[in-house]
Design goal:
This protein is of the alpha/beta class and 125 residues long. The chain contains five helices and five strands. The radius of gyration is 13 Å and the shape is globular. The relative contact order is 0.18.
Length: 125
């Protein structure tokens, strides 16, 4: 299936999302902050990134902007998965290049559906 990078400073949240994705056959790896996630995205070229927003150092909005505007990684779709639930947060996330926005706590089915939607949209042709 797909290679999924989870960028989230919460080990508990990362593990939960990773378990759900692994059950669907996805290859999942994770980073604990925006800087580490950006480096990992460049090195491992995932098919999709799940991005938390509130992290130390480079936040998720900044990391999303870096991934989606970098020549090497801009083809990688980013889905923000955040506890920030204001409409303005979603609009800002999409302006940074995110193609999806999920509010925590997210359900397993909603996450799987959104990842599948993004992966299908990214297919050529």
């Amino acid at each position: 299936m797909a290679r999924v990078l989870i960028i989230d400073d919460s080990p508990t949240e990362s593990r939960r999302l990773a378990q759900w994705l692994a059950r669907q056959g996805h290859d999942v790896f994770s980073a604990e902050n925006g800087n580490e996630g950006l480096a990992m995205a460049r090195a491992r070229m995932p098919d999709v990134v799940l991005m938390d927003v509130q992290m130390p150092g480079m936040n998720g909005f900044q990391a999303t902007r870096e991934i989606t505007r970098d020549e090497v990684t801009r083809h990688i779709p980013v889905i923000i998965v955040s506890s920030k639930r204001e409409r303005a947060d979603e609009v800002w996330g999409r302006r940074q290049g995110a193609c999806g926005y999920l509010v925590k706590p997210v359900t397993e089915q909603l996450l799987i559906d959104e990842v599948q939607r993004v992966l299908c949209a990214a297919l050529p042709g």
